[in-house]
Design goal:
This protein is of the alpha/beta class. It contains 16 helices and 28 strands. The protein has an eight-stranded parallel barrel with strand order 1-2-3-24-25-26-27-28, surrounded by seven helices. The chain has a six-stranded mixed sheet with strand order 7-8-6-11-10-9, with no helix packed on it. A six-stranded mixed sheet has the order 18-17-21-20-19-23, covered by helices on one side.
């Protein structure tokens, strides 16, 4: 019964809100039988999530403004306890609420449940911040014990190992290095008082460009210069008469380079003394010299180059009394496939077919590592290459290939290289997330990790497939993180969450790299918001991932916009940093940002807008 003291406007408003409450409660009650759970604790999360999805199917803009006019809650942060929040408003309006047989929770208990699940999956939070920091490990970190210690000391709570890269021996080496660093810190009485969790990503069915033709060209040995064009340091490398090729070799960070020059003469190279100069004319007929700075072995010496040079097979190094050394061939490198807007790019089904540039008889072509996905393409479907750097559309489909028209970039040519990602955002790709390689890797993962991340999940069935494999290893208790990185996963997120609630230890990762390509960069912020809201409604912990403080980690200097992005990441229970030479600075900065932001913010407050459609719920 509405209070007699209410105005006619309040009467109308109370009836409108009461009708909405009854509608969403009825829909949630009807739908919940479709999603039975074995985890009793998850029933309140299921019912709350269903109520939230039912609520967001309605346009609430005017309703929220009216609530604010009455001085009542605008319902802008009701995700964690939908029905209870509306009931409180109706109580202020003296409106009776029917008793629906739904499992409800209040804000306090919802937060306790969400915190309990986050602690189970990510471990105990540090003092001063609730959001954990996850760092993607590089195999090179194992060679720097002090770096592992510093990462732990400065704020790394979780170590991530991506099984799409490296192999089991290197994974084991990284894990051992991490545990040894923890032990050393404990011995020094500098430990964090908590064990660093380990999450390992399954590789999943990453769809990439296939191999391309290779070509031997003169190798550029570039000496870095300052802004005035002056050399700022020497470039170091080796002369080696056991080397197969002349090539550049990057360090494990993918940043600094050294060179290896293959020498054809089989003579002791350590006979050259330190400081000795070897002169030559490079491929451009310019005078250059190597200076010996270290004798490594009879087969290898270390040299320094002071000015950029181009070297190729057959060049001679002159030293001493007319002695000479002959350079071996540079290693053949994959060519760059050059394309421009308006041109045709042929995408072959055969994953082993080498890509090539356009010829008189055939357009530029590449292959696809997972050819089955090309069967799902239709005319006009968009295709993106290399994280969206190149955009195209399907204009022709044949038995052995698909022709694409390149659309972007429209102001310059673009290069396609092997092993770059392919995205098909509007194509229905019915492909399981779990690959045969993933099944092989699981044996190592379940024995060494606290949680695993399932890549390229599309549907709830992917979680069922994973459960079957975990049963074989007797590890159904291991933490599971579903990586949301495709358009289909966004529309299936509610069903993925409802399936995940039936696991004892479950979370979500917002994998913003592929996701941005799938949904469009301009839509990423809205989609990210929808994911956070749905996960909060399900009381499921979230990892905020991809390109967090990317410039800082890789270049040592953060971009202004990424500081704001990192500061906003406190809304998730965990934030992921990618590897880079300045990763320690990134961890320090992120830890400081999270600690300061969490003092002044709850999850969010907002006026509800259009919401991402959730498939197959009601």
């Amino acid at each position: 019964m509405i209070s007699e003291g209410c105005t006619s406007q309040e009467h109308k408003f109370a009836e409108e809100l009461g009708t909405l409450y009854n509608l969403i409660a009825t829909q949630a009650l009807t739908a919940r039988d479709k999603f039975p759970l074995s985890q009793k604790e998850s029933e309140q999360s299921r019912d709350n999530l269903l109520a939230y999805i039912a609520l967001r199917r309605h346009d609430l803009f005017d309703l929220q403004l009216e609530l604010a006019e009455f001085g009542l809650s605008s319902l802008g942060r009701l995700e964690e306890c939908v029905l209870t929040s509306i009931e409180k408003v109706l109580k202020h309006l003296a409106t009776p609420v029917p008793d629906y047989l739904l499992h409800k929770t209040d804000s306090k208990n919802a937060r306790l449940l969400a915190s309990k699940r986050a602690r189970k999956l990510f471990g105990r939070p540090r003092r001063g911040r609730n959001t954990r920091i996850m760092v993607t490990l590089d195999s090179s970190y194992s060679d720097h014990p002090e770096l592992m210690e510093d990462l732990l000391r400065q704020g790394m709570d979780i170590a991530r190992i991506n099984c799409a890269h490296d192999h089991q021996e290197l994974w084991e080496k990284m894990i051992c290095s991490l545990r040894e660093a923890e032990a050393r810190l404990e011995k020094k009485a500098q430990g964090t008082g908590r064990k660093c969790r380990i999450i390992m990503d399954l590789g999943g069915p990453k769809i990439r460009t296939g191999p391309v033709m290779e070509k031997t060209i003169p190798l550029r040995l570039k000496v870095p210069r300052d802004i005035y064009g002056q050399p700022i340091r020497i470039l170091e490398g080796y002369l080696d008469n056991k080397a197969t090729y002349t090539e550049l070799v990057e360090d494990r960070y993918g940043q600094n380079q050294h060179f290896v020059i293959a020498i054809e003469e089989q003579i002791p190279l350590d006979s050259l003394h330190i400081g000795e100069v070897l002169t030559f004319k490079d491929s451009r007929n310019r005078k250059r010299k190597f200076r010996v700075i270290e004798r490594i072995s009879p087969n290898r010496i270390k040299v320094a180059l002071e000015r950029t040079a181009y070297v190729q097979e057959g060049l001679t190094l002159n030293y001493g009394q007319q002695e000479k050394l002959t350079l071996g061939a540079p290693k053949a490198l994959p060519i760059n496939i050059e394309v421009q807007a308006g041109q045709v790019l042929r995408l072959y089904f055969d994953p082993h077919r080498q890509g090539h540039n356009a010829t008189e008889s055939e357009p530029a072509s590449i292959s696809c590592t997972v050819p089955e996905v090309l069967q799902s393409l239709h005319l006009e479907d968009p295709v993106f290459i290399d994280d969206g750097k190149i955009g195209a559309r399907v204009i022709n489909k044949q038995k052995d290939y698909v022709d694409l028209e390149v659309i972007s970039p429209d102001d310059r040519s673009a290069r396609i290289r092997p092993e770059k990602g392919l995205n098909f955002p509007e194509s229905s790709i019915n492909m399981p997330a779990l690959t045969e390689q993933d099944r092989i890797d699981l044996e190592f993962i379940v024995a060494n990790a606290d949680a695993l991340a399932l890549s390229f999940i599309h549907r709830p069935q992917d979680l069922d497939d994973l459960r079957v494999e975990l049963k074989k290893h007797n590890r159904e208790d291991i933490g599971i993180v579903a990586k949301i990185e495709t358009r289909e996963a966004i529309h299936q997120l509610s069903r993925i969450l409802l399936k995940g609630l039936d696991f004892s230890n479950f979370g979500i990762m917002i994998a913003r790299g592929d996701l941005a390509v799938e949904v469009g960069f301009e839509n990423l912020s809205l989609v990210q918001e929808d994911i956070l809201c749905l996960c909060e409604a399900a009381h499921v912990p979230v990892i905020w991932a991809t390109q967090v403080l990317e410039n800082l980690a890789k270049k040592g200097l953060p971009a202004r916009a990424e500081i704001t992005d990192a500061a906003m990441s406190h809304r998730a229970e965990c934030v992921m940093l990618n590897k880079g030479p300045h990763i320690l600075d990134a961890v320090k900065t992120l830890s400081s940002l999270l600690s300061s932001e969490e003092r002044y913010h709850l999850k969010k407050r907002q006026i509800f807008r259009d919401f991402t459609e959730q498939h197959d719920i009601f």
